[in-house]
Specification:
Layout lengths: L7 H7 L6 E4 L2 E4 L7 E3 L4 H10 L5 E6 L9 E14 L12 E3 L5 H11 L15 E5 L2 E8 L6 E9 L8 H15 L3 E7 L3 H10 L1 E14 L9
Length: about 230
């Protein structure tokens, strides 16, 4: 039986994030400016073709798959990213001061976007903040670290956009923000999980220290649609 996290985007868009979803029964994708992710029920050639037919011209999507996908025309494969998916299996998060943490809102989007552009933790669009619970740390009025929530295949909730300014690495900021993210998810009786590039050894070590365990390998495919849509009414 398939686990929810074997197909986290599709299950997010049919459960906890259904209100952010467009598409049809077997093919879902996030509303424009929220996130550039699509979830396919079967990750099949048929599902990819349906996504092509119902999406707008020049659409760009990120699709996750636990097993290899063949990306064929009419899609253009721009990038393939090999990752690990980790799930939180820790017990209690130690109490720590959160005085340094700031809840981020729409007034911080310019600074958040700048930090994402600098550190490249993953896609961050104009309305990604609406996925919720973004927290950050400032130094000299500059945002230097942040993280937030992304996919919500209930009851699992993903921690995402974990990033620290290169000039402030090694100061424990990511650890503090991740502790806060984990606590917020656990306090809602949900289960934290996340994705990380499989060659990001420093981040993997940090996540494991916090109580995350590698569950499976996962691959992200960044695909782009060229030309006119056949049907964009969904």
């Amino acid at each position: 039986m398939e686990h929810l996290l074997d197909n986290p985007i599709y299950h997010a868009l049919t459960t906890g994030h259904a209100h952010f979803a467009k598409g049809v029964d077997e093919v879902k994708y996030y509303l424009k400016d929220i996130a550039a992710f699509a979830g396919l029920k079967d990750n099949s050639a048929e599902n990819l073709q349906t996504l092509y037919e119902i999406s707008e011209p020049n659409s760009l999507f990120v699709v996750f798959s636990k097993t290899p996908l063949t990306i064929a025309t009419p899609w253009t494969l721009l990038l393939q990213i090999d990752m690990f998916q980790l799930v939180y299996e820790g017990q209690n998060i130690a109490e720590s001061s959160n005085e340094e943490l700031t809840d981020l809102d729409h007034s911080h989007i310019t600074e958040m976007t700048a930090l994402v552009e600098l550190t490249k933790p993953g896609p961050f669009l104009a309305k990604t903040i609406e996925l919720g619970n973004y927290t950050g740390i400032f130094a000299d009025n500059q945002l230097i670290a942040m993280a937030g929530h992304r996919f919500f295949p209930a009851p699992y909730h993903e921690v995402s956009a974990v990033c620290t300014h290169p000039e402030h690495l090694g100061k424990g900021y990511a650890f503090k923000i991740l502790q806060e993210q984990i606590k917020r998810i656990l306090n809602r009786s949900e289960i934290p999980f996340l994705h990380v590039k499989n060659d990001n050894l420093g981040a993997i070590k940090l996540y494991q220290k916090l109580g995350f365990k590698i569950r499976t390998e996962m691959t992200a495919y960044v695909i782009k649609k060229e030309g006119k849509a056949e049907n964009v009414s969904k």
